[in-house]
Amino acid sequence: MESLSAKSRAASQLRQRRHQLARQFGIPQELVGNSLVLSHRRCGKANCRCSSGPGHAQWTLSHSRAGIRQVEKVPRAWVEQLERAVLETQAFVDAIGEVMDINLKLIRLSKQELKKKGSSKNEPPRVSRRLSCLSHAARCPLASLS
Ligand SMILES: [Zn+2]
After folding, report:
1. Which of 1, 18, 43, 91 has the largest count of CB atoms under 10 Å?
2. Rounded to the nearest whole angstrom, what is the distance from the C-alpha of residue 5 to the centroid of ligand 1?
């Protein structure tokens, strides 16, 4: 994909990190932003043709992560290939969301089945320490507070 083909050292480092993530989590490497939008803007120059029309066309690709919106303007020539990538990205993100929805429903159903069996007496002891502390229990001050 031409829009992802930068050759610099920085680009190659980014590609390495992407490859690592893609392998570790089985993520397609060509995921892009999940929103590709065309807008029009007047440049403000009095003698520009845009002053009487809708304005200059500008495509922007974006996505949000941890509440921060990442936005990048993209050349018209790349829009077609990016459109396809955006659709694939949306489908992938939807699929992840659906897997999480399904697993929450399965947890709910499993709890209901457990209640029906009346096996609440066999519940394991409550775990009060945070799950994230388990992996570094030796160092974590919260791990000793159980
Ligand atoms: Zn203009």
Report:
1. 18
2. 30
Residues with CB under 5 A from ligand 1 (ion): 43, 48, 50
Q: What is the pLDDT of residue 118?
A: 78
For the stretch 107-127, pLDDT in tens is 999 999 999 887 555 566 666
State the distance from the centre of ligand 1 to the C-alpha of 125, rounded, in angstroms: 69
The three-state (H, E, C) secondary structure of the chain, written as one string: CHHHCCCCHHHHHHHHHHHHHHHHHCCCCCCCCCEEEEEEECCCCCCCHHHCCCCEEEEEEEEEECCEEEEEEECHHHHHHHHHHHHHHHHHHHHHHHHHHHHHHHHHHHHHHHHHHCHHHHCCCCCCCCHHHHHHCCCCCCCCCC
